[in-house]
Amino acid sequence: MESVHQQFNAIIRDLHRQRMQPQSTLPSLVSEHELQTTSELAELYMLLGREHIETAMRMVDRGVVCLISHSRLLFRVASSSAPGSDTSYCLLPGRFCSTCTLQSESGIGGAPCVHITAVLIAAAQSKCTVEELPAAEMATALFSITAQVNIDEKDIISNGEEVVDSFDNMGLDEDLLRGIYAFGFERPSAIQSRAIKPVIAGRDVIAQAQSGTGKTATFSISILQKIDVSETKPQALVLAPTRELALQIRKVMESLGDFRGVKVHACIGGTRVVDDQQAFEKGVHVVVGTPGRVFDMIDRKIFTTSKVKLFALDEADEMLSRGFKDSIYDVFQLLPVDVQVVLLSATMPADVLDVTGKFMRDPLRILVKRDELTLEGIKQFYISVEREEFKFETLTDLYETITITQAVIFANTRRKVDFLTEKLRERNFTVSAMHGEMDQEQRNTIMKEFRSGSSRILITTDLLARGIDVQQVSLVINYDLPTNRENYIHRIGRGGRFGRKGVAINFVTDDDVADLRGIEEFYNTQIDEMPGDIASLF
Hints:
Residues 165-193 form the DEAD-box RNA helicase Q domain. By secondary structure, this protein is α/β, with parallel strands linked by helices. Helix 8 (190-200) packs parallel to helix 9 (215-226), helix 9 crosses helix 10 and helix 12 packs parallel to helix 14 (325-332).
């Protein structure tokens, strides 16, 4: 017979499949994972927590119960013991939280929140049925569930934590402090001063800060402090949207944790599975990777997650709002139920805040108003090029006018990246190009050349728009304006990071004028026409 832990994980996987396929029903899931013995229930207490099991049993005993989930799927547990009851509960698939606010026209609020697995198993114990509510009933029973966010539009705010303005006052390990100062940090950035201590203390944290303000070091320092170096199984998992960002995070963590002897492994696509396997066999403290490869390693049982106590998502808006949500959910379901969750990003759209309800328990929120998202130290300009075909000559004229160390040029398509690369090389420019269709070895070589300075111009798609720090970049050119205006800040954040100065120049056709104005409005900023003395800025 399966252990309770195996049954628990099986239920979560089945529930996830059910959520992806609404036409399937829940009663079969309950019957497949029925618990029969007192010892199994006792083990379940340890897995889920006594309070949540007892709540689930009371729910079943009270009869008909509407279960309201953050994904707005409603279920009924039907029992003959007390027909007619209509108590409401908030249900988080795969996770329970300490507080949850439900709002409806009738003013009902503060409903208890309970783990879905506890409900299913309690229902199975009592021989109850669990079914999804019919659409007609769902329409009348559905509550509007809102994230508990209090954003002050004028300030960086957090819900109740102190600001610590010195690494020495954070209670950090001496060897970790050596690594921090050796890395070049002198004092915490705004986000680090607010987030590091709560993360170390075990608090779930949603942290928003501008690109280049030290978000990577925020969770890296926190993780490195929490690691038990005597334990060789992975204790922290960091997911990133791109392979390049994952490799950079690993590099930062290895540098910061060097004196502590922390082993960090990058688990990314485009590399050999056997290399991952050998790394895990030798012992890994922290895994940094992309969602697909990480899930594959867990699924193959190469990556054991039983000791993972912290799960971090870097560039959370990208990870959660664009195509990565399902992959992250797959990984999350295979982590311990009490895993701590940290999300960091430069932007936090409303839909991302809604999604965090599935992953986090009473999180500390450190949020920045949208008006402050434009980076200090980045001078922003536009050049009116009228038509698309005039862009290339404008680009070459610009390079004849100014002298720069290194620059990144963003285009919206792989085809345009290839076009620009070919044309610039014909004009004897030293150019590198990178896009998502290249294999990992090519991408690594290109980044190495660019970082070393052997290539002065890197042309890329939005693949590079998040989290890649090249120290010498002083100019970002948006050959095309980003199709998603929230990517604008990630693009221009490549120049002038951590207080260094930089310039962003946007090529604007007549058709792009409205998009440029939209970016200005979105970030409450002003992008001026490029001055004639642009060379003086470099």
